[in-house]
Design brief:
This protein has 326 residues and is of the alpha/beta class. The protein has two domains: 8-104 and 298-316, NAD(P)-binding Rossmann-like Domain (Rossmann fold, 3-Layer(aba) Sandwich); 106-289, NAD(P)-binding Rossmann-like Domain (Rossmann fold). Helix content is 37%, strand content 14%. It is built from 13 helices and twelve strands. It has helices at residues 17-26, 40-49, 63-66, 88-94, 106-121, 124-132, 161-174, 188-194, 202-208, 228-233, 251-259, 279-282, 298-316; strands at 8-11, 28-31, 52-54, 75-77, 97-99, 153-157, 177-181, 197-199, 211-214, 239-242, 265-268, 287-289. A seven-stranded parallel β-sheet has the order 8-7-6-9-10-11-12. Strands 2-1-3-4-5 form a five-stranded parallel β-sheet, with helices on both faces. β6, α7 and β7 (177-181) form a beta-alpha-beta unit. The protein starts with 7 loop residues before the first strand and ends in a 10-residue tail after the last helix. It binds (2R)-2,3-dihydroxypropanoic acid. (2R)-2,3-dihydroxypropanoic acid binds next to loops.
């Protein structure tokens, strides 16, 4: 164990260069150079050997790790906005601070939602697969017809930061109508510029949407929020887009809905049990599948790292970290 006066920080995965350099400038950093996920035992050991842990959304930090009697970690500065991988209640009980990285992922994630929407509507994945397989026989009036976006309704499940940014792009960029499901109506300054219609019940939103984009957080409360009953309520030409969390969708029910033609397609960036993706989904041509790329730009990933660093600097400087969730 180091006797360095600088707090010891374990970064569980590699970060982009600028963020790593800034982390190194402030802390005594040990980095997982292999960039392979650490085992549960390694993470538990790190909780005993470091002052701060900088995990990512794929590192599960459970109550047992947090409640170890010889724990040294004071703060878990998670690299990511979602925090369902950390037992936040246990951290609160144990007095361990937890922070995340909200705000800086908004545009990148909204861009991926639109990427998925366009790919599914215009059958871009299917088209590319056909061409690469040498099966394209040339232009013809009926080849691979997709759906136009202009005038169609994009139904957003939640109108938080990322939902709003997705709606802005769809409405102002592509002329789509915006509808949203939320428990409470959005303030006029949010809904007004989007000309957005509020649906206080999910069924109402699903019934009018040509595209449905999910923007709710993961966790026990939202697990399988989109289930067989929800797919029954969607229109048969509608397409589901998920950039939120895999667990929000009952994947078995989604596969059934796609096979039975209850919905026309799906475009997914997140999955239950990542990085494993259901072979049933992979087998379907009307599904677009991306490998959790929502926040994957150099700018965004650096900004996420900077947020982790700002939170750690604040904590070790005796201040409240700006993105404290526990
Ligand atoms: C997050 O930070 O929760 C995102 O899913 C990463 O893209």
């Amino acid at each position: 164990m180091s006797s360095s006066p600088r707090p010891r920080v374990l970064a569980t995965r590699r970060w982009p260069d600028a963020a790593e350099q800034r982390l190194d400038a402030h802390f005594d950093v040990v980095r997982n150079d292999s960039d392979v996920p650490l085992s549960r035992a390694d993470l538990a050991q790190a909780m005993r050997e470091f002052d701060a842990l900088a995990p990512t959304i794929t590192d599960r930090i459970d109550a047992e790790m947090i409640e170890q009697p010889d724990r040294r970690v004071q703060i878990i500065g998670s690299f990511g906005v979602g925090f369902e991988h950390i037992d936040v209640a246990a951290a609160k009980r144990a007095g361990v601070v937890v922070t995340n990285t909200p705000g800086v992922l908004t545009d990148a994630t909204a861009d991926i939602a639109l990427t998925l929407l366009l790919m599914a509507a215009r059958r871009a994945g299917e088209g590319e697969r056909e061409l690469r397989a040498g099966k394209w026989t040339g232009w013809r009036p009926t080849h691979m017809l997709g759906q136009a976006l202009k005038g169609k309704t994009l139904g957003l499940v939640a109108l938080g930061r990322i939902g709003q940014a997705t709606a802005e792009r769809a409405h102002h960029g592509f002329g789509m109508k915006i509808a949203y499901y939320a428990r409470r109506e959005a303030p006029a300054e949010v809904a007004g510029p989007l000309d957005a219609t509020w649906y206080p019940d999910l069924a109402g939103l699903l019934a009018v949407s040509d595209f449905v984009s999910l923007h709710i957080p993961g966790g026990a409360e939202t697990r399988h929020f989109m289930n067989a009953a929800a797919f029954d309520q969607m229109q048969s030409h509608a397409i589901l887009i998920n950039t939120a969390r895999g667990d929000v969708v009952d994947e078995a029910a989604l596969v059934a809905a796609l096979r039975e033609g209850k919905i026309a397609g799906a475009a997914l960036d997140v999955y239950q049990g990542e990085p494993n993706v259901s072979p049933d989904l992979i087998a379907l041509d009307n599904v677009v599948l991306l490998p959790h790329l929502g926040s994957a730009t150099t700018e965004t990933r650096n900004a996420m790292g900077f947020k982790v660093i700002d939170n750690l600097i604040a904590w070790f400087g005796g201040e409240t970290p700006p993105n404290r969730i526990a």
